[in-house]
Amino acid sequence: MSRSLRLVMAQMDFLVGDVHGNAREVVAAALRARDEFQADAVLFPELALTGYPPEDLLLRPGLHIHVLEALEYIKKRVEGIHVIVGHPQQSPAGLHNAASVIRDGRILATCFKQHLPNYLVFDEVRYFAPGEGGCVVGINGAKLGVTICEDIWNPGPCARLREQGADLIVNINASPFHVGKSAEREAVVRDRVRETGLPVVYANLVGGQDELVFDGESFVMDGAGTITQRAPACTAGLYPVELRDGGEGWRPVPGEVTPLPSVIESVYRTLVLGVRDYAHKNSFRGAVLGLSGGIDSAVTLAVAVDALGPDQVEAVLMPSRFTADMSIEDARAEADTLGVTHRTIPIEQPFAAFLGVLEKEFAGREPDVTEENIQARCRGIILMAISNKFGKILLSTGNKSEVAVGYSTLYGDMAGGFAPIKDVPKTRVYELAEYINREREIIPHRVLVRPPSAELAPDQQDQDSLPPYPVLDAILERYVERDQGIGDIVAEGYDEAIVRRVVWLVDKNEYKRRQAPPGVRITGRAFGRDRRYPITSGYLATQLQDKQDV
């Protein structure tokens, strides 16, 4: 006799700390899964009740009182469907990252995460104790082995569930995006399928939380390692999964397999989701940014418009005595094309006033980078004033290449509440611009082909101070993301003097990055949670020494 089982992957966007609000979302989604999809069970992401990552909120006793209240709320309001939901749970061994299976007012089982990630952006060992054993629950004739995120990235937990009689594995996740992450997830799950021979239903979180963006892409893999269903990236929703047992074990019925987006599309969609959630979850009334006529601010403006809508974005042009006419023309053209309100506020008057105030202090000294930075800080003051007055978040426009080497001004172009392209290398910024222009010209072509310039001095170009961006980005990828040393990078064919200078710039500008706004993480090693380097350190001098001096 053929049997069937219907699960729903609840790929949802939760707000960290809003335990009661998240519980209401869980109840509404569970009832919809029951009534609209006739589901036997609904799977919610890891730590759905607290949102992920709750970080040091987990140290507050009040949070755990709210979690207990939320579990009672779900138990009282949901009947006729199994709810598998993530939450923190105390036990005699400590606090656990847990998942409970709830049905008709009862908690049937609670399992604890066994492998706690403690690398890159993850620091779960700070908060949680590891669990043991496994959790197998019978639902409509099928035995589901319940796992939590990292447990499927390691051999062992799934195999033990198979030994305990599991017919299939369900895995609830909060797996954040970085370039290439989709392939990594599916490869890891395929390893577990080979280990167990069991199909896997992988339900992932979606949404932005500070610098992390969870891209969803929940999927189902059959016992042969084939993807039979995949939910779209960066899109919240309920995705039903049908499984059948015709006597040879439970097998997923093929469903819609949403194609994986290209690398550049996935980056763009992640940036849009990150900006949207950061602005909305922090209750900002729109966004403001400085629009210079350069490629970084052009890409940031396009992201902001797609995230918030053109009516919620304001662009400010702030020309100086060094601003080229084409910069003003291109900035206005993009703002007009996107339907964004824009205004022009020249900085000559405040710049001249600051020079006057400092005239005696600077007497006898030639102009240098100090005067360039004053211009940037004039712009920062103007933009922050607009942000304060109208409750709009200020989006700063610096890219990863600039942030890495300190080619930015504290309290100037670094001012802001969120930095959308903070983790996007300059070469990828150009790729994003081409993607934005894929159907029509939004960013003027001239912006893509003219040499980049901060326009803070006559005839200034970025390459006056920096290596060409393709070279710089290649070195930065090796030093920042791969942790390669100077010798390793030089051995790959890069000029030693350039490598040494780039390394020196990266390390000596850590103090700037500590004062920068958060921004969307899109690489495997972003500045911030990923890369926690000391500001004060003798290591820079050590690695720059000649070998014979050691």
Automatic annotation (TrEMBL):
L-glutamine binds at Y119, S175, K181. Gene3D superfamilies: Carbon-nitrogen hydrolase, HUPs. GO terms for molecular function: ATP binding; glutaminase activity; NAD+ synthase (glutamine-hydrolyzing) activity; NAD+ synthase activity. It catalyses: deamido-NAD(+) + L-glutamine + ATP + H2O = L-glutamate + AMP + diphosphate + NAD(+) + H(+). InterPro entries: C-N_Hydrolase, C-N_Hydrolase_sf, Gln-dep_NAD_synthase, NAD/GMP_synthase, NAD_synthase, Rossmann-like_a/b/a_fold. Its EC number is 6.3.5.1. It comes from the Bacteria. Keywords: ATP-binding, Ligase, NAD, Nucleotide-binding. The active site is at E46 (proton acceptor), K113 (for glutaminase activity), C149 (nucleophile). GO terms for biological process: NAD+ biosynthetic process. Residues 5-245 form the CN hydrolase domain. Pathway: Cofactor biosynthesis; NAD(+) biosynthesis; NAD(+) from deamido-NAD(+) (L-Gln route): step 1/1. Deamido-NAD(+) binds at N373, E402, K512. ATP binds at G290, L291, S292, G293, G294, I295, D296, S297, T397. GO terms for cellular component: cytoplasm. CDD domains: GAT_Gln-NAD-synth, NAD_synthase. Catalyzes the ATP-dependent amidation of deamido-NAD to form NAD. Uses L-glutamine as a nitrogen source. Belongs to the NAD synthetase family. This is Glutamine-dependent NAD(+) synthetase.
